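re: the backbone from monday

yeah here it is again, tokenized this time
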């Protein structure tokens, strides 16, 4: 028996109709939202996924795949989807139909589950796409960001621009055949998690250090709200990692705010700060350093401009930075 609130796989419906039917079926739930990929789309601490609205890539004939980009601490796609992978709970899945369909129309894919989550660089992801006539290529890397492009059978690019692809989600739904070559339950590895964690945690870490110091600890170089601050950066003192590749200590006490060039010298241990006196010292590690370090002689032996703001807990950590 079909009820007026059913969402049948294969139907093409406007969002208003989808939301209306959902509200009738689940009157105690909040309304759906199609603004983000996951609905609800905002609360990072709530892992509930009532629906997935895949608005991108409707022109790509890979309806069981979600190419995830721009995940962050607020969206928290990784942990939320990973939770559904492990629990095998289902959620509603909708995709944009081909471009000739009316605006704001969605194709009902039905109750779906996460089958696997793949690193774009993994053999499984590459093999899955190749079996379907596609190729996924890493075009360039900029610091922590990897830019990928997906090519179809005619070697035409599928993404409008090279995309900062973080991971791929493989879904199962009533309209989709079981994908071959994918091991159910596969999770993204340490590499992907470490990159995502670093991006999210570093923003919080940087904000806390900016609030504490407001300027370069060594030189006192000021920051202003009128500009970005590429010349002053947050850096960690102790870089030890745990088994998952995450920093053991991401606290504010384990960080300094340094001018960009000094930050790189500090990270490479060409510069150290005396934990007792707060004096700055430089050293040569490679033969090329002898040509660079003379430009910093005016800072050699000088007390950090903001040493009075450096707490004892941070000074203790500087003892390990040798």
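seq for it, each position gets an aa:
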């Amino acid at each position: 028996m079909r009820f007026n609130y059913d969402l049948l796989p294969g139907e093409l419906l406007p969002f208003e109709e989808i939301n209306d039917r959902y509200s009738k079926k689940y009157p105690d739930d909040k309304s759906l939202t199609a603004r983000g990929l996951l609905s609800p789309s905002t609360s990072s601490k709530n892992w509930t996924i009532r629906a997935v609205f895949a608005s991108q890539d409707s022109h790509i004939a890979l309806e069981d795949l979600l190419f995830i980009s721009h995940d962050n601490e607020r969206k928290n796609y990784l942990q939320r989807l990973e939770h559904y992978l492990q629990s095998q709970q289902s959620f509603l899945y909708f995709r944009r139909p081909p471009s000739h369909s009316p605006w704001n129309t969605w194709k009902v894919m039905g109750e779906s589950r996460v089958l696997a989550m793949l690193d774009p660089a993994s053999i499984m992801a590459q093999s899955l796409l190749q079996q379907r006539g596609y190729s996924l290529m890493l075009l360039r890397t900029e610091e922590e960001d990897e830019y990928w492009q997906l090519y179809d059978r005619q070697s035409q690019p599928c993404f409008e621009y090279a995309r900062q692809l973080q991971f791929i989600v493989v879904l199962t739904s009533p309209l989709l055949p079981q994908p071959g070559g994918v091991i159910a339950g596969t999770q993204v590895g340490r590499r992907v998690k470490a990159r995502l964690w670093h991006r999210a945690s570093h923003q919080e870490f940087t904000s806390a250090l900016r609030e504490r110091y407001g300027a370069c600890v060594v030189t006192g170089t000021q920051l202003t709200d009128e500009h970005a601050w590429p010349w002053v950066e947050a850096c960690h003192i102790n870089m030890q990692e745990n088994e998952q590749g995450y920093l053991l200590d991401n606290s504010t006490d384990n960080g300094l705010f340094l001018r960009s060039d000094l930050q790189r010298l500090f990270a490479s241990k060409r510069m150290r700060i005396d934990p007792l006196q707060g004096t700055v010292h430089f050293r040569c590690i490679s033969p090329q350093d002898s040509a660079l370090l003379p430009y910093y002689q005016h800072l050699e032996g000088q007390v950090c401009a903001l040493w009075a703001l450096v707490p004892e807990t941070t000074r203790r950590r500087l003892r390990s930075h040798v």
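The CA atoms of residues 242 and 248 lie 6 Å apart. Residues 195-318 form one domain.
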